[in-house]
UniProtKB/TrEMBL annotation:
Domain Leucine-rich repeat-containing N-terminal plant-type positions: 31-68
InterPro entries: Leu-rich_rpt, Leu-rich_rpt_typical-subtyp, LRR_dom_sf, LRR_N_plant-typ, Plant_RL_S/T_kinase
Topological category with respect to the lipid bilayer: Single-pass membrane protein
Protein name: Leucine-rich repeat-containing N-terminal plant-type domain-containing protein
PANTHER family: LEUCINE RICH REPEAT FAMILY PROTEIN, EXPRESSED
Signal peptide as annotated in the record: 1-21
Molecular function per GO: ATP binding
Superkingdom assignment: Eukaryota
Keywords: ATP-binding, Leucine-rich repeat, Membrane, Nucleotide-binding, Receptor, Repeat, Signal, Transmembrane, Transmembrane helix
Species annotation: Taxus chinensis
Gene Ontology CC annotations of this record: membrane
Annotated localization: Membrane
Amino acid sequence: MDLLLLYLLLFLSFCIFLTQAHSAAVWNNVSDQQSLLGLKAQITFDPNNFLSGWSPNTSFCEWRGVICFPHVERVRALNMSATGSEGAISPLTGNLSSLQSLDVSNNALGGPIPPQLGRLSNAEELLLYGNHLEGDIPASLSGCRRLVTFAASYNRLQGSVPAELALLTHLERLVLGGNFLEGTIPSSLGNLTSLIELTLEMNNLTGSILVEVGMFTRLQTVYLHTNQLSGIIPSSIGNLSAMTDLELSTNNLTGPIPVEVGMLTKLQTLYLYTNQLSGTIPSSIGNLSAMTDLDLSINNLRGSIPVEIRMLIQLKRLFLHINQMSGSIPVDVDNNLLSGSIPYGIKNFQLLGRFVLRKNRLKGNILDEIGQMKSLGSLDVSWNQLSGGIPDSLGELQQLRRLVLHHNRFSGAILVGLSRCPNLELVDFSHNELEGNIPGEFLTSLKNIQFYLNFSWNFFQGPLPKEISTIVSAQAIDISGNQLGEEIPGVL
């Protein structure tokens, strides 16, 4: 009898448990439905009728953009990205307690980020970027302890970066660029050792770059450009061995480029332009064998360009202009005080797209080997003291669009080899000592000229070739200051 009574009590307890579990499930289902309907109520304009099927008469798991767990009627993800929606994010969204992913990016949502989103303790990603959200970033978001990605870039957010975000120890991507954030970068963010991407660009941030940045050993992308950051680039940046993209341009950074930058052997993009950096370019930069884009322009850099820069054979874009560097030149810079000649070995830069040496003090010839730089789209050596002939090898540059040689001492004739460059859009040979006839074959090849063709102030002779009439797209053609015949071709 006692045993039977025990079994009966166990059975009743189990029934009560099932009833409570069922009641909780029903309540959670109702809560999710109410939260979604609350979100819909805050949308004031739905141009694509994305929410038209959100009705309490159907299961919310069947609503467009709603993803539920298999076999469980709870919302796992909500995707309303790029629906054209206007309105606001409902505070009731914070009641979706099982939600793992919220994506309302690329809409026209305004108002604040609801502090109630901090209740989403299971959320792994909050994608709020590309809206018109305003106000502060709620410190309560630190309650999303499983958060991996928080992206709220390109909104109208104000205030500071909350120090409480440092509690999100699983965070891998913190993307807050393109807002109106102020204040300093909290040192507590050094706790986010799982970070892979840190983008705070185009804000009004002040203060210095965190020394703690060296703790982000998994970091691959850092965009801090276009702020008001000051101070030095910390040497601890050399610890970021996984870094591929580092953009610190358009700030007020001072001091030297740390030699430890050479330890970032996976770095592909390094943008430090428009700062107040001083000192010399460290020779360790030659270790960055994966580098494709290097821009150190508009600083106060001095000294010579290290010869090790020739080791960057993957380089596509290199900008060092508007500095105070001097000495000989191993590769492409403009508007400095560089002297000497264009060096041999320049052909190693097979991926270089722009080669700009204007406004220096270079002498000597244009090397034949430049014709081996097959990716070259722009060659500008204007405002130097270069001499000799224009090499026929330039005709091998099939991608060349801009050829700018003005204000030098080039002499001799224009070789017809240049007619093999089919994509030229701008040609400027002015203010040199070129002579002879202007080849008609060369003019015929310039059918893609879109900007201008300038032969002025040379010693060209003979009649103006009738082939000049084939250049119909040029904005201007200048042949003044030569010894050409007075007769203008009748086809013009």
